[in-house]
Amino acid sequence: MLLLLLGLIVFYGLVVLFSAVDQNQSLFQAQLLRLGLAFIGLFIAAQLPPRLYVRWAPFIYLAGVLLLVLVLLIGVTVKGSQRWLEIPGLTRFQPSELMKIAVPLAVAWYFHERPLPPSFKDVCVALGIVAVPAGLIIMQPDLGTGILVAGAGFAVVVLAGLPWRWMAYVALGFAAAAPGLWYTLQDYQRQRILTLFDPESDPLGAGWNIMQSTTAIGSGGIWGKGLLEGTQSHLDFLPEAQTDFIIAVIAEELGLVGVLILLVLYLLIISRGLFLAVSAESTFGRLLSGALILTFFVYVFVNIAMVSGLLPVVGVPLPLVSYGGTSAITLMAGFGLIMAIRTHKAW
Amino acid sequence: MVKLALKDPIREKQMFFNRAAILFVGVLVLIGVLVLRMVQLQVWEFQTYQTRSDHNRIQVQPLAPPRGLIFDRHGEVIADNRVSSSLAFVTERIDDLARMMQKVSVIVGITPAEITEFEKRLFRKRRPYEPIVLRDALNEEEIALLAVNRHEFVGVEVIAEQIRYYPFGDLLAHAIGSVRRVNEADLATLDQVRYSGTRFVGKLGVERFYERSLHGEVGYQQVETDAHGRIRQVLDIQPPIAGHNITLHLDNRLQIAASAALGQSRGAVVALDPRSGGVLAMVSQPAYDPNLFITGMSGNEFGEISGSKYKPLFNRAINGQYAPGSTFKPVVGLAAVVNEVTSWDEVIHDTGAFRLPGQKRLYRDWSWRTNNSGGQGKVDLYRAIYRSSNVFFYDIASRMKAEQLIDFSRQFGFGRNLAVDVAGASVGLLPDPIWKKGYKGEIWYPGDNVNMGIGQGDLLVTPLQMAMVAATLANRGKMVRPRMLLASDSMLIEADTRSSLPNISGPSTEDWENMVSAMEAVVHRGNKGFRGNGTAWAYIGRDISYRMAGKSGTAQVVEIKQGQEYKEEDLEEFNRKHAWFIAFAPVEKPVIALAVLVENGGGGSAVAAPVAREVIDAYLLPRLAVR
Hints:
Low-confidence stretches of chain B: none
Distance between the termini of chain A: 21 Å
Distance between the termini of chain B: 142 Å
Oligomer: heterodimer
Strand content of chain A: under 5%
CATH topology of the largest domain in chain B: Beta-lactamase
CATH architecture of the largest domain in chain B: 3-Layer(aba) Sandwich
Largest sheet of chain A: 3 strands, antiparallel
Helix content of chain B: 25-40%
Number of strands of chain A: 3
CATH class of the largest domain in chain B: Alpha Beta
Radius of gyration of chain A: 20 Å
Low-confidence stretches of chain A: none
Largest interface: A-B, 50 and 45 residues
Strand content of chain B: 15-25%
Order of helices and strands of chain A: HHHEEEHHHHHHHHHH
Mean pLDDT of chain B: 88
Number of domains of chain B: 2
Number of helices of chain A: 13
Strand order of the largest sheet of chain A: 1-2-3
Largest sheet of chain B: 6 strands, mixed
Shape of chain B: elongated
Structural class of chain B: alpha+beta
């Protein structure tokens, strides 16, 4: 069931991507290859027994943290951020991607043996497990991924039974500290937030992306301009049309209908995922499945909200649709875990 | 007491279900938010964004109309259009502007002035990816070098456009005027729509007067461009309508002859066809190359032109205002005859000096120094013209009422611009008692009449006005308006609607013939000794093959004090006298009338008359030979 839905959304994504890359064969084939790899990753992850994940969880986590430290020490700098690790002669990869799974894995492992709802001490330890890698990622600096990793870990804590009262306190605390936080942001980050409120203040600079993406979305109307017919996308007005802003291509070419189809597919995947989580037998399985599916939703929401001008621009791709390999592989591996938990119920 | 924490799987599962349910509701709400946002953008605000999207990709670009050409009377192109390539930067595609500027300047020369202009344009409002012009008029070599090294110049574009070209450069600069770059001040006055694609506007002369017709109608093309400003396809095009071509009375060959006749002298020649008033030649020297103002020049070059003490930008032919000197005498003589102050028979004894009754001041004759014995002896009006007797004109002028002299003179167009289509011509000054009272706070003295009698005093005229006087004398009193336009390819909006001028009233046919014949004597009366020859005969009359009438003039620039002698060599260059000559030919059926002015040239007969002769020769001799 879940696999069918994933297949549908990937297919839908490929159709749109075909248009977004301007029918560029090599780019399209590269993405096909990546998605193939991602599905293989899903099947492998689905075959391994959850027992194994519980056993390996702390080591994967520690290895991940170690890699993050290495990134800060000897990482490769691209566009002002040090996010990549280079394996000479082979490839480069972002350890922060790995942490999107490793962190919820570790938190779920921590709560697995402990009574729930968690005690104050357990919550503190869990938050610590989340905070260390999240902090390392934010230092790269990569605020977007840092928040997503923290979110994935925090989702486990919430699902584990973190009292709502405490969350309210924390939220209040953040609200109070907001003016102070403003000063800890980098200049470009502040600019992005300011741009959100008034994109036309700097139409050629920071506001350009958001003005062009809302224009693309709005001009699509209900039925869209037709596949391959999007002027914003094909005349290069829309930035990052194949990657982070691909939802704008869908909205422009396939209209509101196209967006609704996508949202329904996402909602079905999330519903199915949550159902699987609820029906899991072990605490670890429930927490991990639930957290992964919630993280998936956060990606969807943050990306679409950002492109449609509701949130500041952060580098979050549209899951399973945006061009790019790393994110697809991580996500598919996550879904593999959920399936593994499902198929190995007896455990 | 130790509190034992035990796991309770049932309770845990229940709690997880609750949480998951609450979070699922949250997911639904947030997805609802996204759907609402999409509905807002795509349904409620659809029109706004559709417009914005079209506005993004569809641009209406103005297409500048080709400017109308200007031809001389023989069909020679004297104001042309040519394609010029300029270098422009698309700053959005250039990372380091300063470095690129430096790299480009190795291949093409760029002046500091051009950089200043470029920086001004840089801060003006414009579309993204709109090229900003850095330098005009690239030559073939520069274009080739840029093309070969294209890969090194990302964001540097070569744009081709039509610009005005004056094939004869400074020869016609003052005759047809020129276009200049549209500047900030022009933007405020020009029609924003019509001039949306235009970079040059007629600022002087014919180019200015016929601007509306020469300009043409702007066209448009609707293009789809990508975000980098590159045109992907032309959606719609409404071609521009070229400006009207116009043909002038101007005779380029005569213009060349007149320019050559003046040589290195500062001065002006205006030649008219007395029958039509058509301007056959209009020379003002020194001149400048108007092409420099179109393609741009360095600050030094501009400084040299605009700061020169010889004022090459100054159009002496229509804006130079000088005392007419003795060339004014035919007008004074006719005024005296008309007012019956004198007759063609009256004889006066010219002793070389004149004194108003009851006054001490002595008005001397021009021949005071050359002929110390004084005066021309017995002089009548005829002789007073060909000998240019000052004393005679002092006398008859002093005997007229100021109004009689002034009102008669006014008919010739002094103090007015009577030309049909000479933009910005100065009007000169015909002083009268009211003007003098208002401007100088003094009453009109008899001495003012005396001064005006020989074309001095406050009287100021332009060479164009004196050419008109020559034409009027040639026409025996029939006035014609000077005009530049001979023909056009269709009716022009600026078409001449001014009424024709009334003829000079007063002189009889006989008076005109007498005056013409006196002026003929100026040129042709010779071999009669110093006191018997026409003033210009020795200089131009000995070998002339046709009949020409003329009058010389020598206008004082600085006042000579009472009792002081005029010594040319003592005066600074700019204080020397101006030389005038007005003439027309052939006497019986004149086809050309002209005025020559040589600034600080000295004597009119010696300096200006030979110029006039050369110009008329150039015009007349080929015609006479054909006949």
